[in-house]
């Protein structure tokens, strides 16, 4: 039976319909780079580590998760929105506790959890790409150490890729290139690039299992 990679995340990862093109999430391209695995993308826009659980979305994953599967958890973008208290989490307290719920749910079902730090936004100032969500990235790494759970530092990997690409090319990865305002969500080109980056790190990680 084929191993399934379950994706628990937000709008940067979710699969979009054709009518939404060129907006895309990295989860909808992951299958292209990891053909040996089945991808089950449960990512949905606007969810934080908290609301994804509260809405029962982790429970839905748990119902079909089997031994040998993987749960990939990328949360943090929406956790940081203090102006939306219904989804906000404090990075070093409840955010960490919610992340541990994902880990414990996967392990309870004999699946392997993998934490993924938030992906970079197009935050470019004075010739430099800046990393956002610093406390959430750090808190996630702390959870990784506390729970002995692997962490893929997608923030750093994506920033490195943007630096190598240069600003003009990097801009085409984000919807700001289409609508002039959105520095967070990806175009199909950008989503595919992020999926490729992740697939390389996931493949390396799989070798340890």
TrEMBL record:
Tell me one GO molecular function of this protein: hydrolase activity, acting on ester bonds
What CDD domains does the database record attribute to this sequence? Answer: Rhamnogalacturan_acetylesterase_like (cd01821)
Instruction: Please provide the record's keywords in A-Z order.
Output: Hydrolase
- Per the record, a Pfam family? Lipase_GDSL
PANTHER family, sorted: PUTATIVE (AFU_ORTHOLOGUE AFUA_2G17250)-RELATED, RHAMNOGALACTURONAN ACETYLESTERASE
Name the family the entry cites: Belongs to the 'GDSL' lipolytic enzyme family.
Protein name per the record: Rhamnogalacturonan acetylesterase
């Amino acid at each position: 039976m084929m191993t399934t990679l379950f994706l628990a995340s937000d709008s940067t990862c979710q699969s979009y319909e054709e009518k939404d093109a060129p907006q895309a999430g990295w989860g909808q391209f992951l299958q292209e780079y990891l053909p040996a695995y089945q991808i089950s993308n449960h990512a949905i826009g606007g969810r934080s580590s908290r609301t994804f659980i509260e809405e029962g979305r982790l429970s839905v994953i748990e119902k079909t998760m089997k031994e040998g599967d993987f749960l990939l958890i990328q949360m943090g973008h929406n956790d940081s929105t203090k102006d939306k208290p219904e989804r906000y989490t404090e990075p070093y307290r409840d955010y960490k506790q919610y992340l541990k719920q994902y880990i414990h749910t996967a392990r309870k079902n004999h699946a392997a959890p993998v934490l993924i730090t938030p992906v970079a936004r197009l935050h470019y100032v004075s010739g430099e790409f800046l990393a956002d969500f610093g406390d959430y990235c750090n808190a996630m790494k702390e959870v990784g150490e506390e729970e002995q759970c692997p962490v893929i530092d997608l923030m750093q990997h994506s920033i490195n890729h943007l630096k190598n690409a240069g600003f003009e090319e990097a801009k085409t990865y984000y919807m700001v290139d289409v609508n002039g305002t959105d520095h967070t969500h990806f175009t199909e080109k950008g989503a595919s690039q992020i999926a490729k980056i992740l697939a390389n790190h996931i493949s390396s990680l799989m070798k340890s299992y």
